[in-house]
Automatic annotation (TrEMBL):
SMART domains: AAA (SM00382)
Signal peptide residues on this chain, from the entry's feature table: none
Record-annotated ABC transporter domain positions: 6-239
Keyword tRNA processing assigned: no
InterPro entries the UniProt entry points to: AAA+_ATPase, ABC_transporter-like_ATP-bd, ABC_transporter-like_CS, ABC_transpr_LolD-like, MacB-like_ATP-bd, P-loop_NTPase
UniProtKB keywords: ATP-binding, Nucleotide-binding, Transport
Keyword Aminoacyl-tRNA synthetase tagged: no
GO MF, one example: transmembrane transporter activity
Domain of life of the organism encoding this protein: Bacteria
Name of protein: ABC superfamily ATP binding cassette transporter, ABC protein
One GO CC annotation: plasma membrane
Stretches of the chain forming a coiled coil according to its record: none
Pfam families per UniProt: ABC_tran (PF00005)
Length: 245
């Protein structure tokens, strides 16, 4: 893929009910890049991910995925574009309780995702350390295992760009490493990751970290250690508290 996988220009979204959302976001993600998004609670991190992936329409500005302006797309085109280019890891997993793990990974096309072959799905489960869980239902799994199923589902079709909202939020250190190693392989293959995280240790594995405050990009940090990221985040959070958020 030669196009820039993701480009957001003056992208803005305000919730109808008054939530601040995001304001004037200008971000480009190159092929083979890994970007983390951090910031205080309510800073707009998930909203940024939703707008970047077309799950929410920007009210102003534009979002290009693989060189195409998704803010101008109709729902059918948008669904096609998501199937062809995007994997999304949701914060709350979004697993279908009536489906087994294998079905959850394979049947994404029922919900606008790509069609995934059984072998692909089994491989993705194996990469997430879930061999032997193909026929297990989400209800019989721990939070961390469910999260790994949702990651397997997002990675199975080898999308050009993976959006991940707190992908390691429910995971122990070992499982987190598994996920971060999988992201490492993705970027080595020239694909792209944009990930929201609260964990400076996780963000330190990315190439750069965008810090959001009050819906806007406050700073972009490259080459920061986890300690430096933690200290930067603490400053943002104090700033938010001083502003009364
Ligand atoms: N569906 C919604 N309707 C109205 N306001 C919303 C909605 N979703 C989020 N918001 C508001 O928009 C702002 C940004 O929310 P968002 O979830 O993007 O922040 P966040 O940085 O991901 O927060 P957290 O770290 O707590 O998950 C917050 O003030 C939130 O209350």
């Amino acid at each position: 893929m030669n196009e820039i996988p993701l480009s957001m220009s003056t992208a803005t979204y305000h919730y109808v009910s008054g939530g601040p959302g995001i304001d004037d976001i200008n971000v480009q993600c190159e092929p083979g890049s890994w970007t983390a998004v951090m910031g205080p609670s309510g800073a707009g991190k998930s909203t940024l991910l939703y707008c970047a992936s077309g799950l929410l329409p920007v009210s102003d500005g534009s979002v290009y995925i693989a060189g195409r302006d998704i803010s101008k797309m109709r729902e059918k085109q948008l669904t096609q574009m998501r199937r062809d280019h995007i994997g999304f890891v949701f914060q709350d997993y979004n697993l279908v309780e009536a489906f087994t793990c294998l079905q959850n990974v394979m049947l994404t096309y029922l919900f606008g995702g790509p069609k995934i072959l059984k072998d692909q799905a089994l491989r993705a489960l194996q990469v997430m350390g879930l061999d032997g869980f193909a026929d297990t239902y989400p209800a019989d799994m721990s939070g961390g295992q469910r999260q790994r199923v949702s990651i397997a589902r997002a990675l199975a079709a080898e999308p050009d760009i993976v959006f991940a909202d707190e992908p390691t939020g429910a995971l122990d250190t070992h499982s987190s490493q598994m996920v971060l190693d999988a992201f490492d392989r993705i970027i080595q293959e020239g694909r792209t990751v944009l990930m929201v995280t609260h964990d400076p240790n996780v963000a330190a594995r990315a190439h750069r970290t965008l810090f959001l405050v009050d819906g806007r990009v406050h700073s972009v940090c490259e080459g920061y250690s986890s300690e430096q990221l933690a200290s930067h985040l603490a400053n943002m959070t104090n700033m938010g508290q001083e502003l009364g958020q």
